[in-house]
Amino acid sequence: MSACGDDTRREASDGSASTPTSASVSGITLGGEGSSVGMSEGTGGISGGSGSTGVSGPGDTGDSFPATSIESGFTTGFGNEVGGDTPGDECDHVLHATVRDFKESHPDFEYKIKSEKGIVLPDLGDDDKPVYASPDVTVSTTGKANFDQWYRDVAGVNAPFSVDIALADAGGGLYSYDNPAFFVLDGKGFGAEGHEHNYHFTLELHTEFVYRGGEVFKFRGDDDLFVFINRKLAMDLGGVHGPEEAEAVLDDLAGDLGISPGGTYQLDFFFAERHTKESNFRIETTIECLTPPIG
What we know:
Blueprint: E1 21-23, E2 29-30, E3 38-40, E4 47-49, E5 52-55, E6 63-65, E7 69-70, E8 74-77, E9 80-81, E10 94-102, E11 114-115, H1 144-147, E12 158-166, E13 168-171, E14 174-179, E15 201-210, E16 216-221, E17 225-229, E18 232-236, E19 239-240, E20 244-249, H2 250-257, E21 264-273, E22 281-285
């Protein structure tokens, strides 16, 4: 997410940036056709196609989005979100996320730049939220009370919005979403607070899938990223940093995760954008069907 490691950077590591398309917003629904692009990173060796996001809220006056398509039909209110489910095929590869906007003044935002693992415990909490691991503080976080606000609605501290992320079919059984300028809350919530973009937000999503064998789930971005599969931590990119990458090869992790072919398992995804001036977000997976969790 943020250009966290370097406040002078605004472009991808290879010096390129996707050309934004703008969507003018009035009322409560943001939508419109956009173009779809792919992006190859100079590091990590992953090339992925783009997907699309949909987000909307009242009182918006204008937003800039990178050249990924922006889906219409996703409606939300400030602190009063409404889902944008696509009727029909439940395997539409649309991930339904909650994005919470924060003020820059929150103690964990615009704080220390440090990549660190171990911010959260290896088991998901009983409330389907990450559990803060430290009895005190960590290098890039300021304690349990402030961390517990990241993925919970707290009046006056954050503002929730619903955002749908559509994974594009990249062929060969690969599905991807790639956005090197992931500023989904520009013009919303607490606003940019004097910056070019709104850089201070968290994202969580919950989905489930049938494990067939051979699946891979990859992420590249900044800042924090915690992915739990079957309630076990499968990916940890904690801290405030530039774009970092992780890969979960499910066959290799099956024993640790407690998964077996043919079983249905939940995937819980938690992300935080905590620092200017970049926001990178890329998902690639060979999981063939991701559906909203039941119950």
